[in-house]
Design a protein that fits this description.
Blueprint: H1 2-9, E1 15-18, E2 22-26, E3 32-36, E4 42-47, E5 57-62, E6 67-71, H2 77-84, H3 92-99, E7 105-111
Antiparallel strand pairs: 1-2, 2-3, 4-5, 4-7, 5-6
Length: 117
Amino acid sequence: MFEFLKRWFGSRPETVEFDDERVTRTMRNGETESIRWDELREIQIVTTNEGPWVDDVFWLLLGDGVGCAVPSETVGMQRLLERLSALPGFDARAVIEAMGCTDNNRFQIWTRTEVAC
């Protein structure tokens, strides 16, 4: 019986890790997706109406044609949130609004602003 659950959900937790170069999410099945910091153009939070029994908040780290979707209950998300909140222009109010949302919605949390030289 538990073998079925392991195949369905995987035997390991989802994780997200980052270093100075990139953010990498490792899914339960071992697949990964990542985005380099220099590719990151915006951060959004997507909420669904499916909670509270399943994760219903997802962080989207988006670039041009690349991205990484991180469920909010992913191991390492708290540490990543601390790093993301240090980005200039990070909208903490939008994060609070998103965390309180119980509907299907999308929140813009951060957008890269290019500095002209």
